[in-house]
Sequence to fold (300 residues):
Amino acid sequence: MAQILDGKRVRDEILAGLAPRIQTLKRKPGLAVVLVGDNPASHVYVSSKVKTCLELGMHSEKLTPPASIATGALLDIVHDLNSNADIDGILVQMPLPAGIDSQRVLDAIAPEKDVDGFHPVNVGNLSIGRPGPRPCTPSGVMELLRRYQIPLAGKHAVVAGRSDIVGKPMAMLLLQANATVTICHSKTADLEAECRRADILVGAIGRPAMLTRAHMKPGAVMIDVGINEVRDREQAAAIFGEGSDKMSAFDKRGSVLVGDMHPYHAAEVSSFWTPVPGGVGPLTIAMLMSNTVDAAERRQ
Ligand code: NAD
Fold:
């Protein structure tokens, strides 16, 4: 029987490990979250980030400029935060409204306060193995693998997805852990065959249940980063089956969350697997807090 990799448990362990570090700092670590406009999903993400900060006894500031803000004015906000002594980490919630130059905004964040690890300097630091903040979702996956003592050296890791925020940094982190890494993407010729070679398969595609048994080597470790909201009842029933608990939940809520991996196949075929929700998802905020505490310690 495959073992579940419990992201909530690991999140709680990570946060518990931060508490004594926060207490020994002379000043509370500070995280500023900039939320432009009123994208409802972004509001939910930002609220849970702010809430976690407060629970940990950290300082947090939430800035909410309107969607009509000009790139220049948003850059001014970022520059102010760069020079604000109370702030160790700056996060600009993506996506930004159309019309704002997202790349310029991300590039303006001081690399030492870039707790998302998206600044080109930090992307470079990751690539050459120098210290610096790492993107939160892939570094959360590494924590999960480490805490479950899943060996990586010499193993074949396949990362499906090559985004700048998940796929590419995930591949770099696995490489640094001495895995042999293959990156797959939308133009990969034979995705099934590539994925079936994986001892550790990471799904970061953004397509519900796309990776099935046909992509999975028996006994491999399945890490499902995908979080896809399925609103189509037929699609949900094709994945979970009529009469399942998930379909009862669908009928109450009108949607269900599905990862990039077929959940039943991952559970049947793998040695270890991450459920959606409750696997990789909870780790992202924990690593954001961890990056902020790291930044505060470095500044002190
Ligand atoms: P993205 O859309 O930026 O990138 C998707 C990647 O998948 C691309 O590189 C693309 O080449 C690849 N891809 C698309 N179709 C493919 C196909 N048919 N075959 C092979 N590869 C294909 O997405 P992202 O931001 O990297 O996010 C991926 C998933 O992870 C999404 O479901 C997202 O919601 C989820 N996510 C979860 C967390 C978390 O906290 N757990 C954080 C970020 C993203």
Summary: The chain has two domains: 26-111, 136-281. The chain has a mean pLDDT of 97. The pocket of nicotinamide-adenine-dinucleotide is lined by residues 137, 160-163, 165-167, 184-186, 188, 191, 204-207, 225-228, 280-281, 284 (CB under 6 Å).
